[in-house]
Amino acid sequence: MIETVLPVKLYGSKISYYTGKMEAYLRFKEIPYQFKGASPEIIKRLFEKTGTSQIPALELPDGRFLTDTTPTIDFLEELYPCHPVIPSDPVLRFFSKLVEDYADEWLWRPAMHYRWSYKNDRILLSSLIAEEILAGMPYPNWILRQFMKFRQWYYYVYRDGVSADTREHVEGIYLQTLDHLSRIFEVRPFILGDRPSLVDFGFFASMFRHFAHDPTPSRIMRETSPLVFDWQARLWSARGSEVIGMLLDEVPKDWYPILSEIGDAYLPFLNANARAFNEGQSRFEVRIQQVRYRNIPVSRYRVWCLQVLRDRLEALELLARQRVESILQDNNCLKPMMEISNIGSSCYSDIEVPFQGIKVLYQNRS
Predict the structure, then answer these.
(1) CB atoms within 10 A of CB 312
(2) Per the confidence metrics, is the pTM higher than 0.85?
(3) Does 301 map to a domain?
(4) What does the angle CA 363 – CA 287 – CA 218 come to, to the nearest 5 degrees?
(5) Lower Cβ count inside 10 Å, N or C end of the chain?
(6) Domain count, the chain
């Protein structure tokens, strides 16, 4: 039994994609926590405890460590049941999980592109990383900044399929997302109703610590989508005990453009990645919405993501599954979700989520 009045320790970075998501969740749930910046010493300790140096990581009062925000939130929802963020309705729960996965993974590439492709953005962020994460290393600050600018651009832009041929499409993912979310916030304060839910935290990962923070995407958000800018501040300040309101009781029609994007782009991407993984490839090519992405790194984790989505669908009771499949069909998601017969589900069969970070070791996210 864990003594829940003791604070958890959140290891992360104030400029980290997933740390922002995790911290906003803890704040809303009013779970006491201590933030610990990811210094080189802490990164080394995380690797020893979890098998990966990725952030964020949570240390429970009993000494156990949690990694990967998605299963961590699932675990904490059971441990701290007040102010739940995951809908109890099976249909809403399925689509909340689907959209959270999409927001987590599909917005990663544009977030890293804007951060490391634009001059002013990479100058600022390389300085912040050098000061926060690399502080104390025995090298001049300017060398650390130059190293981070090149390293981050090379691995998360150039080596992740962003090129002159794909750049417009990558940026379009962000611009379309701003449009989809703005239409939602015209009619309600949060994505699934009058209080925050899992989907809010999924989109918050990219929106708060990347798009609303970095100079270029932040300017775009302020000028074109102020309702999204307002929402990310509203979610950051929300507290479960103070928010009065309910979630919607069905999947809203203004989610359909997001679901259509999942069917047209994200699920085909997951399928191509899974095929490459099953064939033993390290990199792959895929055409998404008439744009050819080349030299994409195969992600074992994203194979797991696809398998989990399928498992959730197949675990539904008959009536709920029929309703889910109807909505998936309406948004061109059902066929790509069921396209691969053998996804490769055994790739993490020996890992206990969320307690072993090796499960999500496919790239160091920041």
Answers:
(1) 16
(2) yes
(3) yes
(4) 55
(5) N
(6) 1
